[in-house]
């Protein structure tokens, strides 16, 4: 008892330490989550600001492009005007050459040619002046166009830088969102783990209280026994006390042996009675008797037998299994559904009552699945695993006993049921230290 209490105390301390570490890790996770969330907000704000700057730069670039386009159109116009002026100058020069070639024919013609030449020279001078002005305007426009192109290039570079930074920030944003999701999942997992460990602590405390109570009771019995022994030693002394103690123990053993022998006789008698009942179907319902009698005569085919005939139960589990099965011991197992319908028709025609049929082709069962149930204190096993039957009846027997738990005693059964949320309905026998718990 003391060793078990020490083990449970050590286990409780270990669980408390695990729980403290888990809570510390949870706090660290929560702090990391809050920092990541703040980083995410700051990053989103920066992304918004840079996006606005990028949009403004894009608009500025478009404005510069439009302005450049307008200046290019003006440059083309100026170039066209220069070409026209150059063409006019060329024509004027050709006219002067023609007039120079015709000079000297007559004085009158010479005078006219001089006037025309002067007029052409004045026109050429005006055109050359206009051409110089156009060239100056063209140079200025080309300079402005070059400056605008440089401005556009600088804006495009700035836009590229902002887009690159935006791409990096978007990558950071995606990373932070993924990390937030991971932290949320980790925090949820840690919370569930803490909840489980807290339940383990409560279970350990309950078990320790039970052990403490048992230890106190045992210590009281030991103290009483010591007091009684001291009293007997004082009265009889020496070997008389030892002889009396041995005699008392021998008597106790004989009494216990007699009780066990009596219990064995009762079990053997009961087993013989049940065997006779099964053989002659005594104690069975009239409907069950009728079906089994006609089956033995060959009138009904496909009748395998009653549940009680098809199952063998070890002596130590008899009461538990009988309690769990109850009236289903008289259920009739058939090969298939058709055989069951034939038997039902026979009972109706003879007005011999009703019976429950379990066709092998239809009945399926599932075994109880609770994680680490076999490790629970006082757990014996699933009832279906403690009995013997032909494997072809596995579906029927599993449906009847697959979710029935057999335990050492009622206290163990109650503790297991409590730990599993009272998912059991208790049927117990006060005569034997075993309990059947159908789920």
What does this structure look like?
With 439 residues, the chain is mainly alpha-helical. Helix content is 76%, strand content 5%. It is built from ten helices and seven strands. The strands form two sheets. It has a four-stranded antiparallel sheet with strand order 4-5-7-6, with helices on both faces. The protein has a three-stranded mixed sheet with strand order 1-2-3. A hairpin with a 6-residue loop joins β6 (427-428) and β7. Mean pLDDT is 80; it is low at 425-439.
Estimated helix fraction = over 70%
Which strand-content bin applies to the residues?
5-15%
Based on helices, strands and strand pairing, what is the structural class?
mainly alpha
Q: Which sequence of strands runs across the widest sheet?
A: 4-5-7-6
The helix count comes to: 10
Largest sheet: 4 strands, antiparallel
- In round numbers, the mean pLDDT is 80
Can you tell me the residue ranges where pLDDT is under 50 for at least 5 consecutive residues?
A: 425-439
Q: SSE order in H/E notation?
A: HHHHEHHEHEEHHEHEE
């Amino acid at each position: 008892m003391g060793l078990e209490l020490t083990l449970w105390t050590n286990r409780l301390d270990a669980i408390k330490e695990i729980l403290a570490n888990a809570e510390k890790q949870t706090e660290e996770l929560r702090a990391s989550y809050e920092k990541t969330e703040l980083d995410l907000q700051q990053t989103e704000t920066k992304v918004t600001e840079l996006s606005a700057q990028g949009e403004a730069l894009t608009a500025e670039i478009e404005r510069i492009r439009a302005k450049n386009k307008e200046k290019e159109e003006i440059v083309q116009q100026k170039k066209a005007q220069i070409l026209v002026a150059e063409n006019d100058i060329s024509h004027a020069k050709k006219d002067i050459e023609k007039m120079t070639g015709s000079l000297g024919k007559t004085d009158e013609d010479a005078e006219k040619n001089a006037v025309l030449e002067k007029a052409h020279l004045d026109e050429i001078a005006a055109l050359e002046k206009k051409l110089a002005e156009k060239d100056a305007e063209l140079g200025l426009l080309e300079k402005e166009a070059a400056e605008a192109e440089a401005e556009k290039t600088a804006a495009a570079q700035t836009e590229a830088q902002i887009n690159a930074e935006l791409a990096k920030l978007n990558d950071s944003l995606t990373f932070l969102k993924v990390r937030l999701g991971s932290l949320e999942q980790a925090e949820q997992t840690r919370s569930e783990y803490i909840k489980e460990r807290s339940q383990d602590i409560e279970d350990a405390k309950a078990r320790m209280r039970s052990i403490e109570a048992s230890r106190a009771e045992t210590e009281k019995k030991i103290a009483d026994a010591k007091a009684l022994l001291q009293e007997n030693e004082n009265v009889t002394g020496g070997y008389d006390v030892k002889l009396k103690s041995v005699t008392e123990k021998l008597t106790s053993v004989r009494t216990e042996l007699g009780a066990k022998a009596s219990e064995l006789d009762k079990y053997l008698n009961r087993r013989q009675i049940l065997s006779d009942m099964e053989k002659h179907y005594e104690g069975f319902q009239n409907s069950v008797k009728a079906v089994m009698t006609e089956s033995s005569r060959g009138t009904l085919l496909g009748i395998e037998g009653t549940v009680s005939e098809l199952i063998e139960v070890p002596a130590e589990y008899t009461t538990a299994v009988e309690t769990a099965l109850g009236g289903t011991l008289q259920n009739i197992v058939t090969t298939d559904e058709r055989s069951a319908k034939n038997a039902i028709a026979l009972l109706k025609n003879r007005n011999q009552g009703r019976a429950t049929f379990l066709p092998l082709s239809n009945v399926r069962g599932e075994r109880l699945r609770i994680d680490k149930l076999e490790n629970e204190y006082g757990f014996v096993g699933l009832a279906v695993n403690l009995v013997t039957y032909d494997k072809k009846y596995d579906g029927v027997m599993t449906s009847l006993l697959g979710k029935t738990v057999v335990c050492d005693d009622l206290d163990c059964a109650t503790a297991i049921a409590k730990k599993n949320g009272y998912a059991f309905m208790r049927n117990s026998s006060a005569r034997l230290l075993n309990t059947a718990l159908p789920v």
